[in-house]
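[09:14] KT: can someone run the structure on this one? pasting the chain below
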Amino acid sequence: LAGKELWSIALIAPVLVQPPVSGEEGCVYLVDNGCLRYIRNGEIKWSTPPIFGDRTCITVTGGNCALVLDGGMLYLYDPAGESIFKRLISKEGDSFGIPPAVDPEGRIYVLSDKHLYCLE
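[09:31] RB: done, structure tokens below
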């Protein structure tokens, strides 16, 4: 809070349309070089294979899970790096680029240029 650097991690090719997202207890998610990376207290704990594009959006849910939107595909990863689900949102040619939102009941809202989707 005083502006003192706590840690720094070198990146290869971070997605610049999405800022890093932070969860609880020093948890940070970001996409770098096509990989979703989970950083905790300045250390990369795990990375996915390079499957994500340069317009990937992330939201952290309760419990430090990462809700990742890449084009029309929605992914959910737990803090251990396990994939909870992967779902195609639309086959109608929608354009996505806004992080998904989660309400207090756990419903997921995804906005495209044509539709607002709600998933349970």
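[09:33] KT: thanks! The chain has a mean pLDDT of 94.
[09:34] RB: yep, looked fine to me
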